[in-house]
Amino acid sequence: MIIDSVEVIPYRIPMRKPLEFASGRVDEIDHVLLRIQTTDGVVGIADIPPRPYTYGETQQSIIAVISTVFAPLLVGMSALDRGAIHRRMHRTVGNFTAKAGVDVALWDIMGQTLQQPVHRLLGGAADSVRVSHMVGFADPLKMVDEAERVREQYGITTFKVKVGRRPFLLDVDVVRALREHFGSAVELYLDANRGWNAAESMRVLDAVSDLDITFFEEPCDAAEILGRRRLVAHSRVPVVADESAPSLADAAREITTGGATAVSVKVARSGFSEAQKILALAEGLGVEAIIGNQIDSQVGTCGSVALAAGVNYAGRHAAELSNFLDMADDLIAEPLQIIDGAITASLQPGLGAKIDEDKLRKYRQDGKGN
What we know:
CATH superfamily of the largest domain: Enolase-like C-terminal domain
Shape: globular
Helix content: 25-40%
Number of helices: 12
Radius of gyration: 20 Å
Distance between the termini: 32 Å
Strand content: 15-25%
Order of helices and strands: EEEHHHHEHEHEHEHEHEHEHEEH
Number of domains: 2
CATH topology of the largest domain: TIM Barrel
Structural class: alpha/beta
């Protein structure tokens, strides 16, 4: 399993329906497909999502750091030596999704070589994963209509509601409309993407206190240190660290210092190796953990499914696995299926994500396509 070559391919696919939220808006998917090949001819892949408004990474910065910094370190190493590889990559600060992509591709190589699906290498905790769906900014009626359509078509009954607008009553009205429409038949999470300050977030908690909210994710910026901690201490709803907890150290800081009482774990920014550590931390400290989504393609979603199905503690709640429904197309050769509100973990070796080479030629942005 000696690494022979590293390839990064930028591509762009439009969104069928743009996703708007407090910290940004996504009209098209500008991702990077990573391929790491071994001397045995095994190719591990990962889909890397740039999110400049969250981590400061762009499509071009991901290509640059992998091509010029990580690739020279990787070539000639064994794909099994993940610890040594991470130690070398750790010398470069930041670049969370680029590092995570390398880790995911290494696990894909390991799974293919051992002829085992990644979710079994991670622990084989479950055969399928319950799905939650993200509902972006719109007026209350449109957001209710979208949630109803998704429930009817895919059987999904957990919804992550994007909030964080001003005045905050706009979002309170949305959450109330969803609860009044569905009653107790669905579970609702709120995600403000740091759109409010701590004082506003406190008022939102009071305003939705009768609406049975499961989680309140990043209500305000974690840098608002005292205000955030007053909010967390006041809240009866678990406050989720997401953008504020991209690494094990960040998650440990937020949880142990009162900045959060739950954590969102994302394969796209932590890879499998760091994600396992964050989940173990959450389990050991007795705080909730949910598997989040980085507006992932289906290729990226395969990684989230593998983690949620592989690790016991990762499957306690519905995982965010359906953002690809808003994409106009995808690179995956065999599309994922959401049936009765769940996705079945792949039994194919590795991630089980095969690339449709015709679609890759169509959407790649490096001049090597059609």
